[in-house]
Structure formats: structure tokens, C-alpha cells
Amino acid sequence: MGLLAYVFSETDLELVWLNLIASGWGIFFVLAVYGIAFWIDTIAWQFTLPSTKFSWVYNLWKVRMVGAAFGKMLPFSAFGGAPIKGYLLKKHYGIGYREGAASIILVESTHMISMIIFMASGVYLISLLPEFPENYYTFSKISLAVLSVGILGFYIVQRYRITSIAGGWISRQALGRKLEKFLRHLQEFDERLVHFYTRKRRLFFGALGLNLLNWYLGALEVYIILYFLGHPISLGEAIILETFVELVRAGTFFIPATLGTQEAAFLLATGAITGQPALGVATALMRRVREIVWFILGFSLGWQYSTSPSELAQAAQKEMGKDAA
Question: Coil, helix or strand for 47?
């Protein structure tokens, strides 16, 4: 909140308001592009759940809408809404927690791997843009390198059963015998991940390709926003802007809705490219409008999934009964 207040204090808010008024119906085009991207992302998630029919994708879309709304409001971005999605899949669609959690981790993995590919193209374009400050370029290279190492490590842990190997070592210890049931579930979970990476490669690359397309649709969204704000830029510059903003967002994922950091990133990057920092704040605010619309839709859909305390108690007793059996 402090960062957001600072951004506004350093911005000509009257100019921002005039830019937003000038955008006219542009927000509807922004919503249309994001709506398409959201459906594409849902189809990518469907690829990680091959046991369900493709016609079932609408149910996944609803679950994603609710999970995305919670995820934006909670810390840790997409992973903040993951428990909500897993719970809805289990309660309303009969998909077990292990299968649901595996699919969420798989789609997030393809999402992050595709993000690195997209950002690599953006950092390369930054190197070709002479007016982009050198320190911004250095920040982009270092951030991309750190993210790449982290995401590669996350993939290796899944692909090569590192958790199962660690679990096997623990099982041979005294404590391991007490955790035998948990470790067995952990090994079954790992098998689901490895099975997807090794025997479902077409689905893996399909989900990866769809997620990569989504990143470029995000750049298209920036391009459309600035076009309607009356300051069109090239698609390459839109990719640069999206890359820089996403690098900042990735580094501040623990902040709910990346409040303040997104606005600051747009302020700096758009100012560097166009010479008008106020355009960056206007762009960020148009994205906030889109997010608010998505919040409302997501929480509205959440009402049909809402559960009363008595239903929660009954569900908990049922699960306890299964465990006892």
C-alpha cells in the first residue's frame, strides 16, 4: 500500500485520468483478450487431467475462476488459490486430492517453464532497444537467470522423484515407520507427476505451448491498452513491457494481487519506452479494472460452490470415517 501511494504521489493523476477517459471502449477489448487467454489456460489444465472428457472443460473453467479470485487476494499468487481448486475438484467433481493436486502442480509447472521461454524472448528484445536503461536490462538478465535456476530445480524435483528418494531414506529411519502411510501417498503422488512427463509427452508439450501462447496474449493486452490510451507501441515493445512487469511480479509473488509492485513496474518500464510514466500508471489501472471484473465473476461463481458449516462438518466426519475404516 505504501509503494502504491508513492507511485501515485510521483504521478500526474490528472493526466492519468485523462488517458483513461480517452481509452473509451478499450477495456472491453482488454477483457475479451484476457477471457480468451483464461479459456486457453483452462484447456492447458485439462491436458493434465486426461481422465476427464474434453466437454468437462467448462467445469474446470468455473473452478479456475473461483481459484483465481482467491489466488489474487491471498499471498503467493496462483499457489494461494490452489487449495481452493483442489477442494472444489474433490467435493463437487469427485477428483481425488492426489490427482487434483498433481494436475495443479503440473499445469503450474508448464506455466512457469513457458514463462521462462517468454521472458527470454523479452530480455533479448530489451538488448535491442537502445533507449531502455542499462540498469533495467541488467536487472532483467539477473532476474531471468535466478528464476530459471529456481524453476529448473522445481522441475527436476518432480521429474526425478527427489521427494520419493528423500522419503525412502526417511522410511528407513525410526521416524519413517510412523510416517509410513504419508510416505506411501507421497510416492504415489510422485508417480503421477513422472507418468505425465515421461508417458504423456504430447499432453505435456501441448500444455506448455498453450501456456506460452498465453504469455504472448498478455503482451497483446498491453499493446491494446496503450493503443486505446492514444500512444500505440510496437508488439516487440509490448513484449518488453510485459516481460519487465512479470519479472517484478514474479519477484514479489508473496504480495496479494502484487499491489503496488505492478503499478511501479509499469511506471518505470512504460516511462523508459514512451517517455510518459503516467501512461504506465494508466495501463496498470486498466489491468486493475480487468482484475476487479474477474474478481466479481469468480466470487459470483463461488456462491454456487458455497458450503454451510453443517455440510463442512458432515464432510469432515465422512472423511474421518473413511480413515478409520
Answer: helix
Cβ atoms of 98 and 192 within 8 Å: the answer is yes
Task: Give the integer Cα–Cα distance in Å for 223 and 235.
Answer: 6
Tell me the CB-side half-sphere exposure of residue 164, using CA atoms within 13 A.
16
Q: What is the pLDDT of residues 100-135, one digit of tens each?
A: 888 888 888 898 899 999 999 999 999 888 878 888
The chain-wide mean pLDDT, for the chain, equals 79
> Is the CB of residue 115 less than 8 Å from the CB of residue 250?
yes
207 burial type by CB count under 10 A (0-12 exposed, 13-18 middle, 19+ buried): buried
- Strand, helix or coil at 40? helix
- Listed residue (215, 193, 217, 214) closest to 204, CA to CA: 193
Owner of C-alpha cell 478409520? 324
CA dist 150 and 148 (Å) reads 5
Q: Which residue carries 512487469 as its cell?
A: 245
